[in-house]
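One thing: can you check what follows?
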Amino acid sequence: MSFRARFLSLRGRLPRAAFNLSLLAWFCVTTVLFVFLEARFGSQSTLFLYPPAAWCLLALVAKRLHDHGRSLLSLLWGLIPLFGPLYLALVLLCWRGSQGENQYGDDVLQRGADYLQVAVTGVQA
């Protein structure tokens, strides 16, 4: 999956391992950028980083929720004190996504899984 598809698009699915690694990369990059800009230009200079950082995080979360067959509205669970954020953390970081195709696309983990199956086309009896 390309950078654009992973961090900028709200479409598609993202498996758990890819989400966790992408989240770690997002966290490291944004932390380094924030620290560098604040040390170099002052705290006001970091304000322009908030919208792109939030969009990238939203794109990752949307794809991870899609992997479970849930819409982005599932983020509203986070509004429930204590239980909501814990539930979202479990869904996003720990639980396996739905197997097979769902309304948000095919299962990324099953692409090419049945590589021994041969499609026979054009055979006339």
